[in-house]
Amino acid sequence: MATPASAKPLRADTERTVRTILGAAERVLSANPAATMEQIAEAAGVARTTVHRRFASRDALITALAAWATRQFQEAVEAARPETAPPAVALYQVTANVLRVKIGWRFAMDAAATDDPEVARVHAEVRAGCERLFARARDAGLLRPDADLDWARRVYYALIYEAAAEAPATDAAVDALATRLIDTLLHGFGRPAAP
Amino acid sequence: MATPASAKPLRADTERTVRTILGAAERVLSANPAATMEQIAEAAGVARTTVHRRFASRDALITALAAWATRQFQEAVEAARPETAPPAVALYQVTANVLRVKIGWRFAMDAAATDDPEVARVHAEVRAGCERLFARARDAGLLRPDADLDWARRVYYALIYEAAAEAPATDAAVDALATRLIDTLLHGFGRPAAP
DNA sequence: ACAAGATGCGTCATCTATGTTGCAAGTCGA
DNA sequence: TCGACTTGCAACATAGATGACGCATCTTGT
């Protein structure tokens, strides 16, 4: 793993510091991807040297950030039980859960395109799960039998990305967003076909 | 204007050089947004100093790149006559035309979020035109009467962004992509509603 | 309470990208 | 053809970011 949980139980304050830095890094970097370690440290309220103590290099920090976000992403997906719940339910649950993560970890999730093997594995896994879910949705009659599932998945990802830009505050707003997103995915904006 | 056409008629070779650099910058920067001037110069087949002679600074280069892409973008939109053609036709034409530009100038179009006033003006103008087009489409019965036009526009932009990632080679492929995109925008992936 | 460990601060070393300049050789345009 | 302009090359200057230490001070875990 990128951050071996088996390594060592960090001291309480250290744990706090690390989290604070990751949070600050997300905030600062999402506003300006070229932000310096200095700016990140300042946003975290720690000295620049402390950041370097916890993360060997800038790359290491970003990798850790991506790994952290990816872990939350994975949990968000798994919590929706996408393999066993009915397709319509799973689709909605996954969407709402993932939106919550994406909203708060926009930069980190984008940076997840790094070549960290563990991060890549998780994303590939989630993607495969998404494909299975879409296939189940089609078999259940939720999607048209002739739907291009790969294009559908890409559109779905794109919609999530776009929807996450709204950054709603409340849980209810996220749910409403997920509902609207799924509705758009399924029916688009045109009038119901009349034939 | 960002690049005053009124400035001076560049010498033929200079014109060529500038274009080559812009093209190389697009290619290199879309692969790695943090690429150096050195890498861009190398890709363009010129000396680094030449790049600096034509573009005072890195920022200036990126601004010029954005301006260049924005100009093409505007032309692509206007060529579709989005204000006068029937909504369905205009929507298709605009999509196909814009896709062609977006495919070749991905980085430049993204960088267009800079605060160059002229670039911002064009994008705001295009966006307003898009909103008018969507309103016309709704009035013409192409979109549901209760469609959220702002969300629809955002989805449309997101779909174009995603579709442009395919980077098809032939004109026919772009047309097919545009068709599929519009179909998705209008009808989604679900089965036609039965009620 | 005490030892181990963490942080802040100041300091230093280094490195890389940016931007400049001068000059010789080549290209363009009228 | 000839003057003006452009390019490549090499060298130089600078700034800003990264990363490493040592030391005094404060926190944590037991």
Describe the structure.
The structure is a homodimer of 195-residue chains. The first copy, chain A, has 195 residues and is mainly α. Chain A folds into two domains: 7-55, Orthogonal Bundle (Arc Repressor Mutant, subunit A); 65-187, Tetracycline Repressor, domain 2, CATH 1.10.357. Chain A contains nine helices and no strands. Chain A has helices at residues 12-31, 37-44, 48-54, 58-78, 87-104, 106-111, 117-139, 149-164, 171-187. Chains A and B meet through helix 8 and helix 9 of A and helix 8 and helix 9 of B. The first copy, chain A, binds a DNA duplex (30 and 30 nucleotides) through residues 11-14, 17, 36-38, 46-50, 52-53, 56-58.
Unreliable stretches covering 5 or more consecutive residues of chain A? 1-6
Q: Tell me the helix content of chain A.
A: 55-70%
Gross morphology of chain A is elongated
Number of domains of chain A: 2
Number of strands of chain A: 0
Most extensive chain interface and residues per partner: A-B, 29 and 30 residues
Oligomer class: homodimer
Please give the largest β-sheet of chain A.
Answer: none
Provide the CATH architecture of the largest domain in chain A.
Orthogonal Bundle
Mean pLDDT of chain A: 92
- Please state the CA-atom Rg of chain A, rounded to the nearest Å: 19 Å
Structure class of chain A? mainly alpha
**Could you tell me how far the N terminus lies from the C terminus of chain A, measured between alpha carbons in angstroms?**
54 Å
Percent of residues of chain A in beta strands?
under 5%
CATH fold topology of the largest domain in chain A:
Tetracycline Repressor, domain 2
DSSP summary: helix tally of chain A: 9
